[in-house]
Request: fold
Amino acid sequence: MSDNLENAADFAAVPDAFQRLWTPHRLVYIQQGQQPADDECPFCLAPSLSDEDGLIVRRGEYAYVLLNLFPYNSGHLLVCPYRHIDTYDKASTDEVAEIALLTQQAMKALQNSSGNHGFNIGMNQGEVAGAGIAAHLHQHVVPRWANDSNFFPIIAQTKALPMLLGEVRSGIAAAWPSN
Reply:
């Protein structure tokens, strides 16, 4: 090795300015990609599971609410119609009405269970629009708190989550409004 080149092994244990956040649970998401086959749609599968196993917080007649398995923030919910449709314009009047009602109820449940200060609510329709599961319509309800952002999402595309998904699901389900 040239005298001008440094050996990387000499620096492996030297502290630097970077903090590491290990998130092995996300490896499945990375390895399997974002778009499952239509017959493996997680939003079609979830309602066939128990609420705990499917991370379902609330079931309606035309739509249901579940936790995002790869959340942006603790309490990140998804409102999905049971029917496998890909865009909002294909939803029936009943589905649209229930998605709206469940979204309002989700907001109340999140405020009751976590005291958040605001929300990001929206739909990404189509893979080019950023939909993680483009084949099945779903609306995001993401609770936000003052100062909840740090450098992780911007630099490392990582979000630190303080609670396990099962605990979050139980808390939101218990705080769900009765109306």
In short: The chain has one domain: 22-174. Residues 22-174 form a domain with the HIT family, subunit A fold (CATH 3.30.428.10). The mean pLDDT is 81. The first helix runs from residue 27 to 32.
